[in-house]
Amino acid sequence: MTITGSDSTSESGIQADIKTISELGGYAVTAITSVTVQTTLGIQEFFDLPAKIVEAQIEAVMNDVQPDVVKIGMIRTEEVLDVVVEELRKYKPRHVVYDPTVRSSRGDSLMTENMLNLIVDKLLPMVTQVVRLDAVKYHGMKNRYASALAVFLNNGDDTELAKKKANEYVDRMAVKENNLKGRANELYSDLLDEVASNAGRKNDVQYYADKLNVSSRYLAQVTRMIAHKTPKMIIDEYLIKKVELLLKTTDWNVQEVANECGFSSQAHLTNYFKKRMGMTPTDYRRKKREML
């Protein structure tokens, strides 16, 4: 049985556990603790299931199937932790494999320091095998190793043989693993093209998200990962460049520049420009002409 969170990309969590267990000839039964909104760039949001729902999942499987080995992954709330501990105490599986999921493979924090301390106090005394990060030489494969270890223990192997077989499995998977690839770089390039073409006419993030057929949240993940900027910052940079260009190369008055760049009024443009450039559009134009 595996008790852990769900990963939308299937690269970790309950989905990866099921895949690993099935590949090794086992049959996975499950209880989900948390649902993540996740992309190949990382976790966008968590939804921690209520403890009574987690308890009901575990009870249903334990009453009916009575698995000998339980593999535990992500637990994020004390209430769910207490339920898991109580179920382990009640049903006494032969092996409990714990894969500490403090951070995701992409560096997302999965639990608080307080939760980690509670797990050490409450869960670890009931665990027969803790999977350490240094137990696996391939980055991102610790979850697969833990699931494989659980399968071999379930098959009756002793601890050392199960660990050896789990490492051999991970070695094989690391060679042929086909990790899911997102389209972040392509999307970022498309965003820059769209902003360059439309800055001044379309200045809101949602327009560009709709144009590229993605959510604004995913678009923000992409720009933070690649450029360390929000989509709004990128749009503003292009917009400021356009305003600067018009002020330097035309004789349009500030109202005409405001109209061309999508501002509701001259005052709106003046406030926007001064906030970012430290001077009004009129002062900027005068300074640039004095430099010629």
Write the layout of secondary structure elements.
Layout: E1 2-6, H1 13-23, E2 30-39, E3 42-48, H2 51-64, E4 69-72, H3 78-91, E5 95-98, H4 113-122, E6 129-130, H5 142-154, H6 159-176, H7 184-198, H8 205-211, H9 216-227, H10 231-249, H11 254-260, H12 266-277, H13 281-291
Parallel strand pairs: 1-2, 1-4, 4-5, 5-6
Antiparallel strand pairs: 2-3
Helix pairs in contact: 1-5, 2-3, 3-4, 5-6, 7-9, 10-13, 11-12
Description:
- The chain is an alpha/beta fold.
- The protein folds into two domains: 175 residues, 3-Layer(aba) Sandwich (UDP-N-acetylmuramoyl-L-alanine:D-glutamate ligase); 108 residues, Homeodomain-like (Arc Repressor Mutant, subunit A), CATH 1.10.10.60.
- It contains 13 helices and six strands.
- Strands 3-2-1-4-5-6 form a six-stranded mixed sheet.
- Helix 3 packs parallel to helix 4, helix 5 crosses helix 6 and helix 11 packs across helix 12.
- The longest helix has 19 residues.
- The protein is elongated.
- The mean pLDDT is 89.
What key attributes describe this structure?
292 residues; alpha/beta; 13 helices
First and last CA, distance:
75 Å
Question: Would you report the number of β strands?
Answer: 6
Helix content: 55-70%
| Alpha-carbon Rg, integer | 27 Å
CATH topology of the largest domain: UDP-N-acetylmuramoyl-L-alanine:D-glutamate ligase
From the structure provided, what is the oligomeric state, counting identical versus distinct chains? single chain
Would you kindly provide a brief summary of this structure?
The protein has 292 residues and is α/β, with parallel strands linked by helices.
